[in-house]
Amino acid sequence: MSRPLDAHPARSFFSFGNTFRVIAPKGSRMSLQLLALLQAFEARLAERMSKLTFKSKDEILSLSWMTSAMELLRDTCNDIRTLISDLELPVSNWDDKWIDIYMDISRNVLDICNVFISEFSRLNTCNLSLKYALHNFGGATSKLFARACSSLHDWKHHVHSKNPRIEKCSTILDNLMGSLGPLKVKNSAKGKVLMQAMYGVKVQTVFVCSVFAAAFSGSTKKLIHLNVADMYSWAPAFSRLQSLINEEIRARLSNGKFSVLIELEVTDAIVKEFNPSIQVDAETINTESLLKTVEELRKAEEKLSQGLDLLAKGVDGLFKVILISRDDLIYAVLSPSNFS
Predict the structure, then answer these.
(1) For the chain, which has fewer Cβ within 10 Å, the N-terminal or C-terminal residue?
(2) Is it the case that residue 12 has pLDDT exceeding 60?
(3) Pfam families given for it (predicted)?
(4) Domain annotation covers residue 14
(5) Residue 281 clears pLDDT 50, i.e. is over it
(6) How many domains, the chain?
(7) Pair 112, 41: CB distance under 8 Å
(8) CB-count exposure of residue 64 (10 Å: 0-12, 13-18, 19+)
């Protein structure tokens, strides 16, 4: 993925205006203003987690739900950018550990975004077989029907195969998990606010990425259970969300479904309906039941393609936000103004 040249927002993540030249006061006592900034950040974090806790299980783990999860994670990352600006904490006052942690986390998020994009590419390639099958079903000859069935066979073969990059993303998740440990901040109230907010971002990131990895791999081994202390105001919303999603993934996979993704499972079920009809002759091709099944497959394929496209755009949006923030931080650290 490449970053557009005009991708930098008007208000830079690590800007060098007067705000960021203000030196943070000594001491670690949190003022009412800092407390208000932190509470507002955590309230938005809790609200986003609540939005992903649907009442109907039919809404969970659809491509639409996954797109919402990715967009809300992107919004949280943007919130961190705003919080840093509001804290008026110059990069020259950042502890080296803070910078190292942010760069390490963001690198891992970029890596896992690339893994997910590779899965979208694989699924879209599989969908080409569906599109070709539907094209051939439009004909009324046994030859075209045979081609369509052959394409459906190709789809089943490829869609049930595993993406090796998804299988290996456990290492990235382990790295993200390793960053969740508490970081002590001395004599900096603003630093404490930043680190507490960053903890919320890390938890949301690890959770969303682990759910995606489990969904794409069809394995509960990728699921991660995180215990968040009650001291965080967003902890109850997160605990409800985590329990709901993890339990639903385990339930679907224990029922023998090859995928927890609703759109993939629906499409696969329709494709299986063609199995008994592979040897039909020309006279039975245009039966009402067969035409109905073809139409159902057409609608399922369209929904699957549209869902994958929107989800890919959501992941790309997060990728760009992370990439911009990394560039801004590197530029800020290297800027001569930080050493004056």
Answers:
(1) C
(2) no
(3) ROH1-like (PF05633)
(4) no
(5) yes
(6) 1
(7) no
(8) middle
Amino acid identity for residue 302 in this structure? E
Query: Around Cβ 302, how many Cβ atoms within 10 Å?
Result: 14
CA–CA gap between residue 330 and residue 308 (Å, rounded): 33
Domain that holds residue 134: 26-42+56-332
Residue 50 lies inside a defined structural domain of this protein: no
- Cα four-point dihedral sign 88, 94, 99, 105: negative
Q: Nearest-CA neighbor of 196 among 229, 232, 230?
A: 232
Whole-number Å distance between alpha carbons of 66 and 309: 12
N- to C-terminal Cα distance for the chain? 36
> What is the DSSP code (8-state) at residue 280?
-
C-alpha distances (whole Å) from 32 to each of 25, 29, 193, 201 are: 14, 10, 12, 22
Contacts of 331 (CB under 8 A, 6+ apart): 14
What is the arithmetic mean of pLDDT over 36-58? 90
Residue 339 has pLDDT above 70, yes or no: no
pLDDT per residue as tens digits for the range 152-199: 989 989 998 888 898 878 888 888 888 787 667 777 888 889 889 999
Q: 48 in a domain, yes or no?
A: no
Global pTM?
0.84
**Residue 336 is encoded by which pair of tokens?**
């001569």
> Rounded to whole angstroms, how far apart are CA atoms 308 and 315?
11
Nearest to 214 by CA among 239, 242, 188: 242
Query: Mean pLDDT, to the nearest integer, of 31-54?
Result: 93
Please give the residue that has the higher pLDDT: either 18 or 330.
330
Other C-beta atoms lying within 10 Å of the C-beta of residue 162: 12
**Res. 10 pLDDT band, cuts 50 70 90:** very low
Percentage of the chain surpassing pLDDT 90?
A: 44
Among residues 275, 273, 263, which one has the least CA distance to residue 301? 263
Domain membership of residue 13 (yes or no) is no
